[in-house]
Design a protein that fits this description.
Strands 1, 2, 3, 4, 5, 6, 7 and 8 form an 8-stranded mixed beta sheet that branches. The protein starts with 8 loop residues before the first helix and ends with a strand. The model has no long low-confidence stretch (mean pLDDT about 95). The chain has a single domain, classed as 3-Layer(aba) Sandwich (Rossmann fold). The chain is of the alpha/beta class and about 250 residues long. Helix content is about 30%, strand content about 25%. One of its GO terms (molecular function) is demethylmenaquinone methyltransferase activity. InterPro entries: Methyltranfer_dom, Methyltransf_Superfamily, SAM-dependent_MTases_sf.
Length: about 250
């Protein structure tokens, strides 16, 4: 296995797609990051809600945290969920935008996208379009989305600046992005980021919090702010935190 520093961005993306494809098809296997219902409940997804949903929706849950309390999706809006996984967050956004709204679920892993489609179809959610693509090349027109959400995709993306540019591009003027993400308290020594498994532990590709916010400003977002900051099972390294961040397009 190549050292992490020798992997190209495309190699990292292919490995991410492969690993999360396995989370979709074999969620009961052991991964070096938290997966499933117990983790979803630990970050605030209520057990009564999960009881009402297909097991396929929560058994492959792998988010960074839970942004739901902060996502202000409104009836009739267009929402894009980056790294939609098995569709848990997307289902909840569907309840907020209603049948007059429009939803896009994007994921790099085709098996995960297939699973999300199956889950939402089983629940009668029809106003969703599915995008098999990386977050740094979103196949949507400029100025077409009211809200872009995500739950832990930036640290897994090798080109975070490209993702931020794409989010700004597809957002309408005055649109916003609200997402949960792993950030760092400070720079880590390089020996902590040695192999691809460190990428999946959410430290190999995570940014220092201030660096993350400054990059958002540089890519056309006004007043990026941390709405919540804390620790959970995803923040295994002492330097990592889960942040819920909001930023508006200028």
């Amino acid at each position: 296995m190549k050292p992490l520093a020798e992997l190209s961005g495309e190699e990292i993306k292919c490995t991410v797609a492969e690993r999360y494809g396995l989370v979709a098809t074999t969620p009961g296997e052991k991964f070096n990051f938290p997966v499933g219902r117990k983790f979803a409940e630990s970050v605030g997804y209520e057990s009564e809600l999960l009881d009402r949903l297909p097991a396929g929706m929560w058994e492959s849950f792998t988010g960074a945290g839970n942004p739901q309390a902060f996502v202000d999706a409104k009836s009739g809006e267009t929402v894009l969920d980056l790294g939609c996984g098995a569709g848990l967050d997307l289902y909840l956004y569907a309840q907020k935008v209603g049948p007059s709204g429009r939803l896009f679920g994007l994921d790099l892993a085709q098996p995960m996208l297939d699973k999300a489609r199956s889950n939402l179809t089983a629940l009668g959610i029809e106003n969703v379009e599915w995008l098999h693509a990386p977050a740094d090349a979103i196949p949507l027109p400029d100025n077409s989305v009211d809200l872009v959400t995500a739950n832990g995709i930036y640290n897994l993306s090798p080109d975070k600046d490209a993702v931020m540019r794409e989010v700004a591009r597809v957002l309408k003027p005055g649109g916003r992005t609200i997402f949960a993400e792993i950030v760092l308290k400070g720079e880590l020594p390089q020996d902590v980021r040695r192999e691809i498994n460190d990428w999946f532990r959410c430290i190999g590709g995570a940014l220092v919090q201030d660096d993350f916010l400054n990059r958002m400003k540089a890519h056309g977002f006004s007043n990026p702010q941390v709405l919540w900051l804390g620790r959970n099972a995803r923040t295994g390294h002492e330097a990592s935190l889960c942040a819920v961040i909001r930023a508006d397009k200028k």
